[in-house]
Design a protein that fits this description.
The chain has helices at residues 16-32, 46-52, 73-81, 90-97, 99-108, 121-126, 205-209, 224-241, 274-281, 286-295; strands spanning 4-10, 36-42, 59-62, 116-120, 134-137, 148-150, 169-174, 179-186, 189-197, 215-217, 246-253, 258-264. By secondary structure, the protein is an alpha+beta fold.
Length: 301
Amino acid sequence: MTKQVAVFMGGWSAERDVSLVSGASCTAALRRAGYSVTAIDVQRDVSRLMDHLYPRPDVVLNALHGRYGEDGCIQGLLNIMDIPYTHSGVTASALAMDKPLAKKVFRAAGIPVAPDRIATRDEVLAGGVMEPPYVVKPFNEGSSVGIHIIQSEADGLPFAEGSWPYGPKVMIEKYVPGRELTVAVMGDRPLCVTEIRTERGFYDFDAKYAQGGSSHQLPADLPKDVYDEALRLAQAAHDALGCRGLSRADFRYDGEQLYILEVNTQPGMTPTSLAPEQAAHVGIGFEDLVTWMVENAECDA
């Protein structure tokens, strides 16, 4: 019998539009691969979502990005319903999305991270929380949403005028200059290292998704020992968080040391996304990638 797959997309996070593109790409590829697919634009209405899940699908391909779809919430619901789903489970999803907790896990696993501190917005506004340059990060947003680089005390803080929808506390992280690198991991296999180049200063939301916002060099032109270490650290981070399925680890390399920035437990699947590009580089086409994701879907044990 043809496997029934429900593709979750959309949602209501700041990454809704990106998720819709990821979900549409996955839906089309799964249909080409012979699956029976229902695309579901997930709304903030659990009863409506439950209605969409009857008759019950065999698998959910979770193409949601950001809060509620990527942080363990949807994963918990699917665990209760005993419907296998792609990507990581509740604990790994929640840990990876919470930047301070993820960094504690990375430190414990011996994975280098940049120095940071947690502060209230008032403490940051008062000055002296960290010598610039530093990065202001929300605790639990993806796709670089809300991230600002403060190069000097003269730079305006993003919440100085009160327009900050990401909570009362922020993570202040020492800015690491250098090259932006990323590694996708499929289960127990790191794929390759990509260097991301952009004129925007760092790989922000527009650099990720706007046409021409960045360029990708893969494989990255790195010394072999640095290249191999990036692969090793990406797999180590995937394992330390307890990820499964597809993930992507982002790094900065200052010429001497690799620093992990974060792990994305549900990497983008858009036409400009990095994980499908790396899969293609090692000979895994988009249809084969989403097929692998569906065939390896599971609930938490």
